[in-house]
Amino acid sequence: MTLPGAPWLHRRGRTLYLEDVALDALARTHGTPLYVYSRAAMRDAARRYERALAGRSHLLCYAMKANSNLAVLQTLAAEGCGFDIVSAGELERVLAAGAPASRVVFSGVGKTRAEMVRALQAGVRCFNVESLAELDRLDDVARALGTRAPVSVRVNPDVDARTHPYISTGLRDNKFGVVHDEALAVYRRAAELPGIDVRGIDCHIGSQITELAPYLDALDRVLDLVEAVEAEGIALHHLDLGGGLGITYTDEQPPAADALVRALLERIDARGHGARELLLEPGRSIVGNAGVLLTEVQYLKPGAHKNFCIVDAAMNDLVRPAMYEAWMGIVPCVERDGTPSVWDVVGPVCESGDWLGRDRALAVAPGDVLAVLSAGAYGMVMASNYNTRARAAEVMVDAGRAHVVRDRETTTQLFAGEHLLPD
Ligand code: LLP
Fold first, then answer.
1. Are residues 116 and 231 located together in one domain of the fold?
2. Is any ligand 1 atom within 6 A of the Cβ of residue 152?
3. The whole model's pTM is what?
4. Ligand 1 mean position to 31 CA, how many Å?
């Protein structure tokens, strides 16, 4: 079987490796649950986009919500990436990783005044504005600071990305963006506001998209709007087409990043928009298959109806299966002899929804280390402290060496900010 994450993730004999590091040994050294990433895999994914965009005016803005560890940001900044952020907290991470705010675009439906002030002072490249009310607030904040806010309007193209409803964002019923029919009016208003500097147009239709067609449909809708906006004398410097490219978790076959970019560029050129700067905001497709979550089997609980394999990672460490019924591969770090049985792989959290995989054929024993695959995106970033569980450590493998890039949380850290009442 080809592992998602190959060639960085591979077997030598029975043992699973990420780059040149044996994962079972890494788990024994650093403990579990443990997130492990391959720096080479992330670099390669970013370079695939960069190569396809070469020769074009562009900026690849990594959607850091997918994985915002500072070492990940540092790695991608060194590749020339910018960042798509959705909070002031993410902006502070970009700056802490040593990347400039001038490479940052700020998305999200609920930007607060304080976040706008911080982003304007830092000098972000563009605000992706998602409503008329936000536009007015941004104008107000920018004027108070004596500046002008660079803006794209995020358009909701009403295109079905044919993905899970929770991660679909470009439909009329989603909270995101300005509906297509109203976008022209928002641009007219933006052009009149003294604190707003119209720079571009933006859209994002969803995540884990595995087909080209929804992208091209959305692009056509966006270009229609570009033409309508420019016909009114409002210039648009860049096109931001969002992120959303899917990865292989099981048998999905999404287009490769370069095939996606080529198809987009072809359509852009065919419609005579080739000179415009192109921004993309990929998240999952940069980091998803670059990471795994390691977890140790605690107990086996065979039953008449179900067999449970109880591991030490839970929904608080990796919520995707519980939240989206997402299927993620689970394999042993060292394969053992014996006939596999069918197990539900579950965590220790007190919820029936706390599972990582259902009906998985595995030959396992307590003490074995399992790897949950394709866990580099929307894994650690969505972790919580439910059940007062400390969050996992993170390790980055780079050129044969394993670096701890985030310490395991300690229990005392978890309630350090809490206070007993005075009596
Ligand atoms: N840009 C915007 C405005 C977004 O909202 C998103 C993701 C991205 C870019 C990056 O999309 P990507 O390339 O990673 O698909 N937690 C969910 C995914 C939520 C995605 C939300 N928006 C999951 O685990 O599947």
1. yes
2. no
3. 0.97
4. 30
Q: Specify whether 350 is catalytic.
A: yes
Please give the tally of structural domains in the chain: 2
208 CA: nearest ligand 1 atom: 15
In a domain, 154, yes or no: yes
Q: What is the pLDDT of residues 298-331, one digit of tens each?
A: 999 999 999 999 999 999 999 999 999 999 999 9
Query: Could you tell me the distance, in angstroms and rounded to a whole number, from the CA of residue 242 to the centre of ligand 1?
Result: 9
Q: How far is residue 292's CA from residue 236's CA, in Å, rounded to a whole number?
A: 41
Which residue, 266, 282, 298, sits at the end of a domain?
282
Determine the atom of ligand 1 nearest the C-alpha atom of 377. 24
CB-based contacts of 409, cutoff 8 Å, min separation 6: 385, 390, 391, 392
Residue 355 has pLDDT above 80, yes or no: yes
CB of 193 within 8 A of CB of 145?
Answer: no
Structure-token pair, residue 52 = 């396809």
Domain boundary among 252, 282, 312: 282
pLDDT digits (tens, 9 = 90+) for 67-116: 999 999 999 999 999 999 999 999 999 999 999 999 999 999 999 999 99
